[in-house]
Amino acid sequence: MNKYRTHNCNELRKEDVDKSITLSGWVNKKRDHGNLLFIDLRDNYGITQCIIDRDSKYFSDLEKMQLETVIKVQGNVVNRSKETINNELDTGEIEVAIEKYEVLGSCKELPMPVFSNQEYAEEIRLKYRFLDLRRKKIHENIILRSKVISFIRDEMTKLGFLEFQTPILTSSSPEGARDFLVPSRLNPGKFYALPQAPQQFKQLIMVSGFDRYFQIAPCFRDEDARADRSPGEFYQLDLEMSFVEQEDVFDVVEKLMVNTFKNFSSKKLMFDKFPKIKYAEAMLKYGSDKPDLRNPLIITDITEIFTREDVSFEIFKKLVKSGSKVRCIVTKNTKDKPRSFFDNIDKWAKEEGASGLAYFTIEKNKDISAKGPIGKFFSQDSLIEIMKKCNCEIGDSIFMACEKQEQLEKITSLARDKIAKDLDLIDENIFAFCWIVDYPMFEKDEITNNIKFSHNPFSMPQGDLSEKEFENPLDIVAYQYDIVCNGIELSSGAIRNHKPELMYKLFSIAGYDKKKVDEKFSGMINALSYGAPPHGGIAPGIDRIVMLLANEKNIREVTMFPMNQNAQDLLMNAPSEVNPNQLKELNLSLNNKK
Question: What residue spans of 310-379 are helical by DSSP H?
Fold first, then answer.
């Protein structure tokens, strides 16, 4: 028999009354009722209420005991009185009358309480993460994470995938984020890189003749933190499949996501079959390639309206002549909203760096007219044309922005979210998945004006790939796709380019000669030259999946030991200085900045 416990702290029920038991755990909370002391004892599984009478020789010691002390108690299970039953606890019908106790682990004064839901500064939470992880909500999030990963592993196995582990020490890649570099002791002056993703290795697995691979893969990128992205490291469900087209990948991922989200959440899925939205369409209708489809608002381009002679809104007309575009968002039946509602959104847009959002409301007395600061600049005919373009009705309002395309997409995307939030249009009890497809293969670098890869350089381009198509590389569309849920990108994926000659051609467009490609991707190019199957894959982020399921806004809340915004581990004091002898072994010296 285990000397520390006969039961865990979530196990005892009414049928255990009169049993002599042993429990061990942390003192979660104490309540002194004069003649009785109540102690909530907590372990990984739950809480059991324990009681001790003032006449006991242990009463005084337990009364003074610091919360979070680890103790073992022995006693008898008794019924709670009817008025003290706690239906919120699984053990709420019973309590344990303490006969004896033992301190297993003493506790110093706490820098933050564990049983409280009060928010604390990030610095305190991360420095004392082992205490933070004892708190109910985050403890449950980490358990959820473990269960989700186990479930995904089982599902992937059912779908015919095999799990393989790829190297952690690998070569640096010229594409993507900054690498974390590791100096080689045995090869002075040379460095390994921690993998940003197992991209090349999983393709090599397909070339090796394995058909379906997956891995819960650690990935390392030296990039800044965001609410939905950890600095430094993260985990993804990495998968790859041979002899597949885009739809085959979609089929597998949709089954996995539907099963996972239905299993771990009571929220509804808006779609069991995820809609596919072309990248260009997404940027037009939502201003983003990460659209939240719970939001019913749609962006419409109405640039042409401002070329009409019967529209006299000269500010927009001049901007349109200089190359700007006009896009708008329609809000249904908002005629009775106060002026402050519209002005606040205009003010907000200016605070976001835009020139503002012009607005009016469509109304009809004898004729159709527009009510609002700029309504007088539009004729009835122009308003009818806007109504047709935007599926707009009497009583609806229209917000308009006029900017260059990139800035226009940014502000209308933000405005779409802002307006929907202000109007309470988003159903928080829904998961809305979609695919964004048909990404451009190349884009122009804003600074150098050179052509570069826009997404994944190893992707297969669409089309017949004739020389004529290569003359206009910015028009080439790739078999690249993202999966998005509730406005959060879970992953990018692609059907891979498995043809070496085509790869050389595409890299040459992005400025890489054959020698450089052979140097940077020697393993990949060489492998593809020995009979490579068509293959493709994707890698949904585990952290973001769990974040959605746990209904958290920050990825830190579902990560066991996260870093802070400056990529520092406050608990383990990393990064830290190293011993000069270690640097000497690695043939390194530091050029310290003064």
Answer: 314-321, 339-351
